[in-house]
Each structure stands twice: as structure tokens, then as C-alpha cells.
TrEMBL record:
One Pfam family linked to the record: TerB
Protein name (record): TerB family tellurite resistance protein
Database matches in InterPro entries: DjlA_N, TerB-like
Domain Co-chaperone DjlA N-terminal: from-to ranges: 23-140
Entry coiled-coil feature ranges: none
Species per Swiss-Prot/TrEMBL record: Sulfitobacter aestuariivivens
Signal peptide: none
Length: 146
């Protein structure tokens, strides 16, 4: 189902993503981090829906539909390195920085920072071209909001 999208995303010089494609790719990244500890908690799914509603102005039905599509894409997406690098090449830095903040929200949603989530988030931060300092600031911002 997502073959053409993934092919476009992972080609050597991807074009900037259209808004709907960027939404899908970034939401799939949120799903990947939520699934990384092998416990895809209802709180994480609800938070992903809320994040997409807030970020994209979606209603609950459209947010759930986007998450469902993103879950399918995440299942079919290549390894995290290729998938994340493709997102980096197709999405502006400021948007990638906001994604790191959203990823921290998902990691912290269930009240537990699993080592798998931490490891994946460090990898994703690096592959998205975000500095460790920017990631730490994003985490602190999220923790302060909790």
C-alpha cells in the first residue's frame, strides 16, 4: 500500500514532501518510537492522536485515521536509519526539531523511559541532524509541561 510513497521517500535525492506526506511520515516516526519498547500503550496512541490534532488542526476522527495510516507505513518502512534520513532530507530543520519534542512526549507518555526508547530517540535525533543539546532542551521542555 505504501510502496510508492516509501520509494519516493528513500530515493537518493527526495523532493520536499507535500504536507499530507510529511504528516504521514512524521506520524509514522512517532509510532515507531512508541512501539520501540514492544509495548504500544493506549496512552501513547492517544498522545499521538492529540499531537497530530494540535499540530495539524485535525479532529479526533482524522487524527485516528492518520495514526492508523502511519501504523501501516511504520510497519512497511525500511530500517530506522534509512527512513529517518529520508525524513531529514525532505523536511525543514525547524519541523524536525518539533518532531524531537513530540517524540519526547511519546517516550514519556507512559511514565517510563525504556532503554529501547532512549536508544532509538538518540539515534533518530542524530539522523535527523538535531544536536544532543537541542534534544535535551526539548526533553526538559516536555518534562516541565508534565
Amino acid at each position: 500500500m505504501f510502496g510508492d510513497f516509501l520509494k519516493r521517500l528513500t530515493q537518493p535525492d527526495p523532493e520536499p514532501l507535500a504536507d499530507t506526506d510529511a504528516r504521514l511520515a512524521l506520524t509514522a516516526l512517532l509510532v515507531r518510537i512508541a512501539r520501540s519498547d514492544h509495548h504500544y500503550a493506549p496512552e501513547e496512541r492517544a498522545l499521538i492522536d492529540q499531537l497530530t490534532m494540535d499540530r495539524y488542526g485535525l479532529d479526533a476522527t482524522d487524527a485516528a485515521r492518520l495514526r492508523g495510516d502511519a501504523e501501516g507505513l511504520e510497519s512497511e518502512a525500511p530500517d530506522t536509519v534509512r527512513f529517518t534520513r529520508a525524513i531529514k532530507d525532505a523536511i525543514a530543520y525547524e519541523d524536525r526539531l518539533k518532531v524531537i519534542e513530540a517524540l519526547w512526549k511519546v517516550v514519556l507518555a507512559d511514565g517510563t523511559r525504556a532503554k529501547e526508547e532512549d536508544a532509538l530517540l538518540r539515534l533518530v535525533t542524530n539522523l535527523l541532524g538535531i544536536s544532543d543539546m537541542d534534544s535535551a532542551e526539548a526533553r526538559q521542555k516536555v518534562e516541565a509541561q508534565s
